[in-house]
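SEQUENCE-TO-STRUCTURE ENTRY
===========================
What this section holds: a protein sequence and its matching fold, both as plain text.
Question of interest: how does this chain fold, as expressed in backbone structure tokens?
***
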Amino acid sequence: MVRTFFAAIIFLSASLTVFAQKDSSAFAPVCMLPEAKKFDFLLGKWKLKWNDSLSGTKTVTKELDSCTVYENYIDDPKTGSYKANSYTIYNQWMKNYSQTMMDNKGYFMISTGEWKNDKMYFVHKFKNPEGKTQIHRQVYYNIKSDTMDWDWETSSDEGNTWKKEMTIHYTKF
């Protein structure tokens, strides 16, 4: 009985090691897929402007062996009162983009993204404090090598209608 137990543990350990090696090797080519590079338009250092008087900066780099896009955002560079970071990666199994964002105010958001009609959309669905479903949507559009626009939109009717909350204009440094 003891011998069977140890044989099972050795078999299980060997199986997990082989599975882990196979599983991790499956990730390597994903970073090289054309889909995985479609969010690269955001790479670089950006000056952000909204409401004609508010500004911020965003520095975007490739991280984790160039498999993820890392964003580092600071609102007013003089005060740095609001800061946020996000990681975005192409999810080959879901055929979409996965983004995780967190900020210095305790906000945490997981979004899924897709390209549609020359725009990049990221959507985050959640329950508000009243228990109602709400959706936040980020939209990147007018994308050029040195400028682009970004909208923050909300919906409280499952995405049938959208309310634009903010537009930010990006200009590359």
